[in-house]
Amino acid sequence: MDYDELEPETEDETESVPAPHSSDETLYCEAETLPTVEKEKPPRESSETDLEIEDTERFFTTGQKDLYLEACKLLGTVPVSYFIRNMEEPHMNLNHHGLGPKGTKAIAIALVSNTAVTKLELEDNSITEEGVLSLLEMLQENYYLQELNISNNRLGLEGARIISDFLQRDSSSIWNLELSGNHLKEEAAELLSQALSTNYRIKRLDLSHNQFSDAGGEQLGQMLGINVGLMSLDLSWNHFHVRGAVALCNGLRSNVTLKKLDLSMNGFGNEGALALGEVLRLNGSLAYLDISGNDISNEGASKLSRGLEYNENLKVLKLFLNPINIDGAVLLVLSIKKNPKSRMEELDISNVLVTEQFVKTLEGVYAVHPQLNVEYKTVQGFSAKKTILLWKNPIKVIQNYADQQKITVVDLLKSFNPTGTMKMHVGEFRKAMTQQTKIPLNRLQITELIKRLDERTGMVNFSSFLNTAKT
Predict the structure, then answer these.
(1) Neighbour-count burial of 86, counting CB atoms closer than 10 A to its CB (0-12 exposed, 13-18 middle, 19+ buried)
(2) Angle at 268 between CA 267 and CA 270, to 5 degrees
(3) How would you classify the pairing of strands 204-206 and 232-234?
(4) Reduced to 3 states, what is the DSSP secondary structure of residue 242?
(5) How far apart are CA 92 and CA 121, in angstroms?
(6) Continuous segment of H or E residues that includes residue 374
(7) What is the pLDDT of residues 170-191, one digit of tens each?
(8) Are 35 and 25 in contact (CB under 8 A)?
(9) Mean pLDDT of the chain
(10) Distance CA 37, CA 438 (A)
């Protein structure tokens, strides 16, 4: 996820928002989430009994329900039963409910005083500019709601203008904003960039599947050069080409906070790869970069490799669906080997068909960087049958060893974690399992084990072994 662990809000910011649930949650490459803020209930007199508190909360929820039903009646819209049933849940998923602007306004009215919902999803509801305006007016009063998904609502330029004005006021607790698939073009990029040049509260922004081109890239690049809030930015499936790529990279050179960047399915080409290679050489914060599907060939891979030789922070690089062959793949893995300070954990070149010689070269790279995993296509000339014969279910191997030592599997895995906790970064876990000598596991088995334990947040969770072992 959603891939390095994201920093919690700064001290100044946390004064204006409720405290997070836990500092252990992360944003990963596919990131990994930021800490969810826990609602703060008003202080109560010590003389109150538990029953009195429960009655008060029931009255509060009932009042919200009545308010919502009255709003629906006045606006002439049908109440959503799911919304009524889940008013006390932190995650409210109203995607694809056909709310329209009036239904959205009724929801907004009911949420003004709600202290339970921290994440609201309204994707694909045709909410239009009127609905967006209602939501943002609500957010000026509700400081508990922190994550908002209004993707695929065809908001267009007017919707972007309303959102931009709201962000410039910086008057809410929203840190995660999803605006994917909203027909946003160059003018919208200018408005949003202007707002984000002063709003540093937004930590995660999804602008994928829009219609930004090179002019939009120039606006967003300028914003990235001065923004010190964004930690995750998704610009995949837009229309950036060389000029837009160079502009974005110019901003990234001086950016010090962005950790995750998705630029997949654009058109950067080799010239864009050259600019990105320079970013990798200079940028000190980026941990996850997805540039899949950008028409990058071996020439571009060579440019990226030069940056990887110096980079000390990147953990994940995705190059899937680029026209790179075995020569480009060799350049990439050798550049990681040359860099003793590399923290690379995942290199995705899974469309590249490699040879047995490449696999042998990769073993040498793994010896230097045991935390690394390279995804590639089936090996030519390599005995798949032999590999299968040498492979045993890693779950059973670990279970057998734990039984011999008369300890639980969870305790065994926790012994490999310096912190002794139930969660561990994927790269650190791979390195620990590769270097340990107690359990007879090869790299193929370790990779399979991680797939079963990975939460898709860049962390493995040992408690999930309890369910995995049964399968």
Answers:
(1) middle
(2) 125
(3) parallel
(4) helix
(5) 6
(6) strand 373-380
(7) 889 999 999 999 999 999 999 9
(8) yes
(9) 86
(10) 41
Count H helices and E strands in the chain, helices first: 19, 13
Q: What is the mean pLDDT of residues 219-238?
A: 98
Q: CA-CA distance, 167 to 161, in Å (whole number)?
A: 10
What pLDDT is attached to residue 390? 52
Query: DSSP per residue over 81-136, as a string?
Result: HHHHHTTTSSEEE-TT---HHHHHHHHHHHHTT-SS--EEE--SS--HHHHHHHHH
Question: For the purposes of burial, counting CB atoms within 10 Å of the CB of 251, is it exposed (0-12), middle (13-18) or buried (19 or more)?
Answer: buried
Distant-in-sequence contacts of 32-35, Cβ < 8 A, 24+ apart: 32/1, 32/2, 32/3, 32/5, 32/6, 32/232, 32/260, 32/457, 32/458, 32/459, 33/1, 33/2, 33/457, 34/6, 34/175, 34/176, 34/203, 34/204, 34/231, 35/8
Q: For residue 42, give the amino acid letter.
A: P
Non-local CB neighbours of 407 within 8 Å, separated by 6+ positions: none
pLDDT digits (tens, 9 = 90+) for 258-309: 999 999 999 999 999 999 999 999 999 999 999 999 999 999 999 999 999 9
CA distances from 219 to 23, 95, 190, 251, 283 (A): 34, 30, 6, 10, 20
Cβ neighbours for 387, distance < 8 A, ≥ 6 positions apart: 444
Amino acid identity of residue 280, one-letter, is: L
User: Which structure tokens are listed for 76?
Assistant: 């002439």
Answer whether 376's CB lies under 8 Å from 349's CB.
yes
